[in-house]
Amino acid sequence: MSSVAYWSAERWRLPGLEVYAEPEFDPIDLGDGYAAAFALLGTRILLTAPIGEAGEHGVPRFCAARQRFLEKHGLWDQTHVELKDYSRMGPTPSRRAQNQFVDFVKAEFERGALVGLFSFGTRTIVRWIFNANLKLHGRTEQVFVYSDFDEAVERAQRELRALGLSS
User: Fold this and answer.
1) DSSP 93
2) Three-class secondary structure of residue 89 per DSSP
3) CA 72 to mean position of chain CA atoms
4) CA distance 29 to 63
5) Model-level pTM?
6) Of 37, 138, 126, 44, whose CA–CA distance to 90 is shortest?
7) Spatial distance between the Cα atoms of 164 and 167, rounded to a whole number of angstroms
8) Distance, CA of 53 to CA of 107 (rounded, Å)
9) Deepest of 112, 121, 124, 147, by most Cβ within 10 A of its Cβ?
10) Contact indicator for 156, 116 with CB cutoff of 8 Å
11) Which helix H or strand E contains 163, and what residues bound it?
12) pLDDT score at 69
C-alpha cells in the first residue's frame, strides 16, 4: 500500500473543505487482500474507498471499520452523507457480497443517520448490479452513482444544504 494517505489533498482536488484522515483508517487492512480507506471531508461527509476484492468476509469487516471510524469522530448518531470511491474495488463482487452490501445500506438508512450514499468511480457492470439490487430491495431514493469525485461532492453538499446542514 502507498505511504500517501488515500484521501490526501495530494491525491484529490478538494472543494475548500478540510480532509480529516488518520493513518489508523487510511487505509486499514481488512484481511484477505482487502482494505478500505476512511476520512472526513468537512464535518458531515464520510469518505470511503474499498480497495481490492471483498471476498466472503470483506463487507462485514468494512462495515465494522466504518462504524468504528464514525463512532471515533462522533458521527455514528449524527446526520451525514457518504462518498464512496469504487475505482480501486476488485472484480465484480460475489452474490454474497452484493447481498451483504444491500442489507448494510438498507440498515444504515433505516437507522437514520446516513441520508445519502454518493458513489463514483464505479465500473459499468458493477453499477448495473448495484442499481438492480437496490431496486429489487426498494432502496434507490438515497443512493446516487456519479461519474467523478467533483460531481459526487457537489451533490452531497447540496443534499446537506437541503437539510439545513453545512458540510
Assistant:
1) P
2) strand
3) 17
4) 13
5) 0.87
6) 126
7) 10
8) 23
9) 121
10) yes
11) none
12) 96
The set of residues, in sequence order, having a beta carbon less than 8 Å from that of 147 and lying 6+ positions away, is: 120
Class of residue 139 by CB neighbours under 10 A (exposed 0-12, middle 13-18, buried 19+)? middle
Distances (CA, A) of 127 to 47, 101, 141: 19, 13, 15
User: Is-contact 165 79, C-beta < 8 A?
Assistant: yes
C-alpha cell at 101: 452490501
Distances (CA, A) of 66 to 5, 63, 121, 150, 159: 17, 5, 19, 22, 21
CB burial class (10 A; 0-12, 13-18, 19+) of residue 122? buried
Which residues on adjacent β-strands are paired with residue 3? none
- pLDDT at position 2 is 44
Cβ-based burial of 106 (10 A; exposed 0-12, middle 13-18, buried ≥19):
middle
Cell output for 129: 448490479
Is the per-residue pLDDT at 1 higher than 80? no
For the record, the C-alpha cell of 157 comes out as 453538499
At 118, the amino acid letter reads F
Judged by average pLDDT, the poorest of 4-8, 62-66, 105-109 is 4-8
The alpha carbon torsion through 92, 96, 97, 99 (nearest 10 deg) reads 110
C-alpha 141/C-alpha 115 separation (Å) is 10
